[in-house]
Amino acid sequence: MKKINLVSIVVLCIILLGGCASEPNQEVNIIPQPQQVTMADGGFTLSPKTVINVIKGADDLTPACTFMSTLVEKSFGQPLSVVNGEMKRDAINIAVDPSMRADAYDLTVGKKAIDIKAGSSKAVFYAMQSLRQMMPVGVEKGEKMDKIRIQNVRIQDEPRLAYRGTMLDVCRHFFTVDEVKTFIDMLALHKLSVFHWHLTDDQGWRIEIKKYPKLTEIGSQRKQTVIGKNTGKYDGTPYGPYFFTQEEIKDVIQYAADRYITIIPEIELPGHALAALASYPELGCTGGPYEVCQMWGVFPEVFCPGNEKTFEFWEGVLEEVAELFPGEIIHIGGDECPRDAWKKCKKCQARMKKEKLKEEGDLQNYVVHRIEEFMKTKGKRILGWDEILEGDVSKTAIVMSWRGKKGGIEGAKRGNEVVMVPNDYAYFDYYQAKPVENEPFGIGGYVPVEKVYSLDPTEGLTPEEGEKIIGVQANLWAEYITTFSHAQYMLLPRMAAIAEVGWTPVAKKDYDNFLKRAKLMTQRYEALGYNFAKHILQEAKTNE
Q1: How many Å apart are CA 262 and CA 258, to the nearest integer?
Q2: Which among 208, 229, 305, 502 could bridge 164 via Cys, Cβ 3.0 to 4.6 Å?
């Protein structure tokens, strides 16, 4: 019989026990990159016996606790119990500390317990998302486990910007309630805080307004859709009627709120109006006839601000929208509004004369001011695309800079709050890889992951001016995105990059390190069943 030496026994032990003599994994790969991470040896063992222990809560912690409890339920076969009491062992101890910044959290994973101290329930939820990303990917799929090991670490973290969003266009192509909820789940995974919901446009009106039922009876459907990029050929297939009832919208709002995400609805005015004008032609300068648009672009048929009934319509619509959406901000569009019809319209010219307006651009500014004053009576602030800066827009309006950074820089310098959405960094309907011939058909442009990641929303501003940049956002326009699977493909993994732009200070950003973490994040996407551009990160360095 051969002798087995001690070294052989040790090697055999390591092989059979999966590395029993190896050092514990001391990497924490989280997106977005936390502000401060302090590693420690060892790990905490989460099991079905672990409880979520609320020590002190300043507001409702139920959604955050429910999220963590149900996250592991499929793996453990039961949810974690939620209790109230003093600090415990074998527990996720939660305390809300109002002296902390609202979005800040302090997460300590020790050998005996996990302790979370946070400035609000939203920050507790962010801590839960960090814990989630420290768990095995199998948790997302509900793989059966009797314990989950989490690396010992202390994370002290808070976002750079409070507003971190992504816009979803449901007008050009529609996405269902379930698909919108999945989109919200994607936002939550990346600690994004805002869902900008583009609900009205030339090609479809997607929100029920009880005062104006024709908006969905007529405006939510089009006869057919152009093939390709306004080729003059059409598919001959009716599209719609597709819209969200107010009850469905309330359901989506609650779903987002349970994930600490604010929804900002967009109701376009005074341009991008054809779906509304097809429904109520008297609101246009010519009285029609109009039809819901079957192709893409910017069109001369816009609302008539010389007609007092137009303002009655806007106020009636916005009143219902304000009642539906609890957030402080309503997006009113304000972009891409041709004014040729106003030059020929007797009502518009009479309005300009009465209000002593010199040109049609001043008439658009009059619209924005008047709508803003109305929204103030409803306790809301307006947000508009950077075209609203072309007039003397009030300092209380929020500017969304989409035509590059220029509008945002101008807005911040003049004292307006700004959300940066520059198309050359943050338009996710643009191609993300080359050659574009290998990508799903799209609108054009080229915004690779690295370009998204390189965005600095306060670049070119003094520290004081930079304080006016309240947020950053990515936009997904849907002219050429006909399915939700395609939408996910365009969003992921670029959503990870925009999340880190909004969360992590410039000094702590590191693209090479981000790529490593993003590649690991795609394993989570796969486990969750999300479609994503699998080749993008592998090719990222090649396309530099």
Answers
A1: 10
A2: 502
323-355 confidence digits (pLDDT tens): 999 999 999 999 999 999 999 999 999 999 999
Task: State yes or no: cis peptide before 265, omega within 30 of 0.
Answer: no
| Token duo for residue 57 | 């809560």
Please provide the average confidence, as pLDDT, over all residues in the chain: 93
- Please pick, among 173, 190, 196, 272, the residue that the annotation labels catalytic: 272
Catalytic-residue membership of 336: yes
Q: What is the model's pTM?
A: 0.94
Characterize 280-309 residue by residue with b for buried, 16 or more Cβ atoms within 10 angstroms of its Cβ, and e for exposed. Answer: bbebbbeeeebebbbbbeebebbbbbbbee
Burial class (CB in 10 A: 0-12, 13-18, 19+), 78: exposed
Long-range contacts for 388-395 (Cβ within 8 Å, ≥24 apart)?
Answer: 388/334, 389/414, 389/416, 390/361, 390/364, 390/365, 391/361, 391/362, 391/364, 391/365, 391/366, 392/365, 393/365, 393/368, 393/369, 394/369
369 catalytic residue (yes or no): no
Assess whether 138 and 273 both reside in one domain. no
Q: Of the listed 103, 201, 202, 208, which one is catalytic?
A: 201
Please indicate whether residue 272 is annotated as part of the active site. Answer: yes
* For the chain, the helix, strand and coil percentages under 3-state DSSP, each to the nearest 5: 35, 20, 45
Whether residues 204 and 97 fall in one domain:
no
Beta bridge mates, 198: 169, 266
